[in-house]
Amino acid sequence: MGKDLKGRELGKGILQRKNGKYCARYTNAFGKRIMLYGWDLKELKKQYNEKIYELDHHLNQIDESITVDEWYEKWLSVYKKDTVRESTLRIYKDIFRRLISPKIGRMKLNSVGKIHVQKLINELYKEKNYSWQVLDKVRRILSDMYGRAIEDDYALKNPTRGVRIPQEKSEEHHVLSAEEHALFFETAAGTFYENLFNVAVNTGLRPGELFALTKADIDLKKKLIHVNKTLLYATFEGENQKSFRFGPPKTKSSVRDVPINSICEKYLYRQFTLKNMVSLKFPREDEFANLLFVTKHNTPINVQICNDAIRRIIDIRNEMLDDIEKLQPFGGHTFRHTFATRCLEAGVKPKTIQSYLGHATLEMTMNLYVHTTDSVKQEEIELLEQNINVLNSPEFIDTAYQRASNDNIIRMPSTKL
Predict the structure, then answer these.
(1) Residue 248 half-sphere exposure toward CB, CA atoms < 13 A
(2) What is the CB neighbour count within 10 angstroms for residue 102?
(3) Could you tell me which of 131, 173, 139 has the C-alpha nearest to residue 374?
């Protein structure tokens, strides 16, 4: 039994400190000693009795002292380490370390509210200019962390509910990350449109240009694709419904030769075989008979058919993925943007990329594709840091001075103190 300063009994677990403040002590469900303080004895007893009632009836039994950083380590170790791919694990670690932990990592897990998460997202968007995909990944990582925490009685609520990403998602300019790229094409392997997708992402052709290709447009000896037309699907003047029609390229600069790499060459050969098989089963003798990329019934392809095929691949893959890893929907034009971005990441000159894409001006190419993915930005800045550390090292400075001294350029100083 605790006592007040005059020696009177206050009840189990309650006492009065020398400064006159009352203190109530109890041990929570996790074996941790909890202290409640207050100047009003009646109010403190009420709080204390509520906590004891919750404890006796197994209500709200959460570890109130654990931080976001501490729970992240538990979450990663228990729920992710052995269930997701190593490359995915690296992405989780990188995003949490760089974007989440510095802002809310030291906060108590249960003191983080929706306002804190929304503020974090807003700051990453406005101050750091991160893409929609990265912001969504931050939100989904936190959502999964809190979902698991609620299941394990470490948290009472999920503060990511209702959080909005300020940047509108644009499928038109979406670029597949290296991880998304690998997941999509791994799942597309063996499907009917696998060849189409691979040629698209290795050439950067517009969907209409790709759908209009014939075998005559492909020069395997010179390893070039001659782009000289596009396939349109629309309601033309004097018609009551949509139909296919060949049209001229988008601009004069769109008439071009696009080089074929070894990956593209492999899938073109496969498509030649597939086209022959489909043509034998569903022969046709009209203007579309020689189209290389067709449906299973040897009919022309339009954007909707392509996008539906992409969506089926995404749905199949997402059934096998953790919630955080799930692929976001995208359209056929994304392959063109991804091709251009991969070229930039590989160091291909913008003027060369312009010729691949058939843009009228270099400015158009740079405005669309000058950005690189956030993972590449991080890798490049870390590479810069490594190079600067090498240049600033005493060993490198000593070596540089030694060489200059040997060449009678400067007098050799010593870096040793």
Answers:
(1) 4
(2) 11
(3) 131
